[in-house]
C-alpha cells in the first residue's frame, strides 16, 4: 500500500483465493458428522452480468462446458436485484465435482476480465427434517459464511444454526469474521 492509501485510510482489497472452494468437501464431512447436514448437489455463482458480446459468449461457453450431456446440469437466472445466478447440479454424493464446476465458473469469469462482477458462490446443504443451509463464499473477501433461511413465508434466518456452523467449519474454511458481511440471500437458487 502506498503513502496515499495510508493517509486516506484505504486498504488494498483482499485477493480472492478461489482454491479455498476446494476445502468445501472437508467442511461437508464435518457438517454431516457433527450436524447431520448433507450436500444437496446444488451450487451457484452470483455475478453482475456485463454488457456486450464478449460477456455473453463467455456465459454461453460456461453453460456449454458445464452442461456436457443430455441431462441439463446448469441453468442461469436473474434475481429481483438484477444479479445473474449460474446454477450447477451434480450428484449430492459428488461435492468435489460441484466445487470444480463452481471454481470453473469463477476462474473463467476472472480470466475474461469479468472478475469485478463476481459476488459470491453458494453450496447448498439440508438435513433430514428439511432445514436448508448454504455455505457462501464471498468473492471479494475470500471468506465463507453460513446462511440458514428458516422455512415459512416470512424471511427469517436461523442465527443460532449459522453460529453453530461457523464454529464447526472454522477449522476447514476461512470464515468471514465480520457478521455484518453475512448477508441474507433470500430466494438464492439452490437454497
Molecular structure report:
- This protein is α+β, with helices and mostly antiparallel strands and 191 residues long.
- It has a single domain (13-181), classed as Alpha-Beta Plaits (2-Layer Sandwich), CATH 3.30.70.
- Helices cover 31% and strands 22% of the residues.
- The protein has helices spanning 3-8, 24-35, 53-66, 95-111, 159-169; strands at residues 38-47, 74-78, 84-89, 118-126, 132-138, 143-147.
- A six-stranded antiparallel β-sheet has the order 2-3-1-4-5-6.
- A hairpin with a 4-residue loop joins β5 and β6.
- α3 (53-66) packs antiparallel against α4 (95-111).
- It is globular and about 45 Å long.
- It starts with a helix and ends in a 22-residue tail after the last helix.
- 32% of the residues are buried.
- The mean pLDDT is 86.
Report, as a whole number of angstroms, the end-to-end distance.
39 Å
Unreliable spans are none
Amount of beta strand: 15-25%
Strand and helix order: HHEHEEHEEEH
Shape, principal axes of CA atoms:
globular
Question: By helix and strand content, what is the structural category?
Answer: alpha+beta
Question: Given the structure, what is the number of helices?
Answer: 5
Total beta strand runs: 6
Mean pLDDT: 86
Main pleated sheet = 6 strands, antiparallel
Helix content range = 25-40%
Give the domain tally. Answer: 1
> Rg to the nearest angstrom?
17 Å
Q: Which strands sit side by side, in order, in the main sheet?
A: 2-3-1-4-5-6
- CATH topology name: Alpha-Beta Plaits
What's the CATH architecture name?
2-Layer Sandwich
CATH top level label = Alpha Beta
Amino acid at each position: 500500500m502506498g503513502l496515499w492509501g495510508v493517509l486516506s485510510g484505504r486498504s488494498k482489497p483482499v485477493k480472492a483465493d478461489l482454491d479455498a472452494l476446494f476445502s468445501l468437501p472437508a467442511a461437508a464431512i464435518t457438517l454431516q458428522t457433527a450436524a447431520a447436514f448433507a450436500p444437496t448437489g446444488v451450487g451457484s455463482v452470483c455475478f453482475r452480468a456485463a454488457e456486450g458480446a464478449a460477456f455473453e459468449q463467455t456465459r454461453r461457453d460456461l453453460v456449454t462446458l458445464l452442461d456436457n450431456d443430455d441431462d441439463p446440469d446448469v441453468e442461469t437466472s436473474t434475481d429481483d436485484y438484477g444479479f445473474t445466478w449460474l446454477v450447477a447440479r451434480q450428484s449430492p454424493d459428488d461435492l468435489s465435482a460441484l466445487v470444480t464446476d463452481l471454481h470453473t465458473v469463477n476462474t473463467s469469469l476472472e480470466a475474461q476480465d469479468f472478475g469485478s462482477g463476481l459476488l459470491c458462490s453458494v453450496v447448498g446443504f439440508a438435513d433430514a427434517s428439511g432445514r436448508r443451509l448454504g455455505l457462501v463464499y464471498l468473492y471479494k473477501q475470500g471468506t465463507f459464511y453460513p446462511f440458514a433461511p428458516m422455512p415459512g413465508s416470512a424471511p427469517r434466518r436461523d442465527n443460532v444454526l449459522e453460529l453453530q456452523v461457523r464454529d464447526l467449519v472454522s477449522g476447514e474454511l476461512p470464515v468471514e469474521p465480520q457478521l455484518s458481511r453475512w448477508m441474507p440471500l433470500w430466494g438464492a437458487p439452490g437454497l
